[in-house]
Amino acid sequence: MMTASSRGSRAAASFLRTSRRSHPHICSDCISHIRARSLPISTSLPTPRTRSYAVAATSLKTLTPEPDSELQHLSSQKPISSTSTQYVTKAGILLSRAPLLTAPQTSFEKAFYFYQKRLNERLAMPWARYFYFKKGTPSDADRKLKEKERNGSVARELGGYRAYGDEAWHDELLSTEADAGVSEETAKLGLGKMGIAEPKYLIESLVKDAKVRAVEGKDGQAVEVEIKEGEDTEGKEGVDDEFRVEKPLSRFTESDRKNDLRKLDRKLTRTLYLLVKNKSGVWGFPRGDLEGRENLHQAAERILVQSAGLNMNTWIIGHVPVGYHVSPPRLIAKHDTSTSSSSSSPTPEPELELQRPGAKTFFMKGRIMAGQADLAENHFGLTDYKWLTKEEVQKHVTTSYWAHVKNMMADR
């Protein structure tokens, strides 16, 4: 079945063939294009039918305005000169001495370790005494004297607790035992009076047990050596070397007693940090400007040598800073006499002139293994130095400086 559109196209094609001799043979598609270019709109020829969903493309008008090339929020700000910068990058050094001793034990730790020692005595098998000590020898007599004083207990620091006696179950620390062995030095630590669980009592028990109590006499028999309670034989003339017992060193040094803040042998359980004082009397960590193309690691090594001298064996840890401090620049108002003094116009904001640039200091972490600081030939006009803990650093620096550097330092 032929549609109306196909009949109209065939009629137009036959009309064009008879009217235009230049196109004796033409198809229906070409007829429609030729007719649209050559025939006027008022022609009586039937127009070809188009599909209802095919529409001519129209120019769409955008609803959003064209973007403004000028940023209005930046037009009121004054241009910044590229020749003068408001901040200078600096490198600093956080030089520290690591703790040399373990931290003091808390009351809970003392009670826990003491209980573990007594529990170990209950779980351990009895040891064969005569496998190690021959009967009738001075060493066997020495062992018997010492075990008798500690109620037959093998352990020296458990306060006479017998793991295989009738009261072996009674292994907890009593209040009466806690009252024993407390000294003024342990009481000053503020960690609680744990008595025989204190490390001080443990040291005294081991030193007392190490003293020789029986020696071989002239006839080959064991002879007991009389040593008075609390007698210190160290350094005395006429006392044989075998009776001297070398005691452990104290956790508190002479620098702690004198409160010498320049010594490195103080506060052995804490981390110490090098703090220096400049010519203005302000305390802080060593710092300086970067020179040439050096990075922060290289600058920290140079600044440390120029600040504290060469008499130190140090090590700069890593190439990444552990903290920073920002010193704001100092700006002053610039007076302009060319502006009009009319009262009707609003007073413009005065221009600020840079008087002194600020500083952004990045601190590198370092360790000291040996040596001591020496400010005799420093390049920064430093007048004093101290080795301080974290709490002591807070007392020497300003509040704003402490807010920047407090998280760089360890709590211990």
From TrEMBL:
<dbReference type="Pfam" id="PF11788">
    <property type="entry name" value="MRP-L46"/>
</dbReference>
<dbReference type="InterPro" id="IPR015797">
    <property type="entry name" value="NUDIX_hydrolase-like_dom_sf"/>
</dbReference>
<protein>
    <recommendedName>
        <fullName>Large ribosomal subunit protein mL46</fullName>
    </recommendedName>
</protein>
<keyword id="KW-0496">Mitochondrion</keyword>
<dbReference type="GO" id="GO:0003735">
    <property type="term" value="F:structural constituent of ribosome"/>
</dbReference>
<feature type="domain" description="Large ribosomal subunit protein mL46 N-terminal">
    <location>
        <begin position="90"/>
        <end position="256"/>
    </location>
</feature>
<keyword id="KW-0689">Ribosomal protein</keyword>
<keyword id="KW-0687">Ribonucleoprotein</keyword>
<feature type="region of interest" description="Disordered">
    <location>
        <begin position="333"/>
        <end position="355"/>
    </location>
</feature>
<comment type="similarity">
    <text>Belongs to the mitochondrion-specific ribosomal protein mL46 family.</text>
</comment>
<dbReference type="InterPro" id="IPR021757">
    <property type="entry name" value="Ribosomal_mL46_N"/>
</dbReference>
<keyword id="KW-0809">Transit peptide</keyword>
<dbReference type="InterPro" id="IPR033650">
    <property type="entry name" value="Ribosomal_mL46_NUDIX"/>
</dbReference>
<dbReference type="InterPro" id="IPR040008">
    <property type="entry name" value="Ribosomal_mL46"/>
</dbReference>
<dbReference type="GO" id="GO:0005762">
    <property type="term" value="C:mitochondrial large ribosomal subunit"/>
</dbReference>
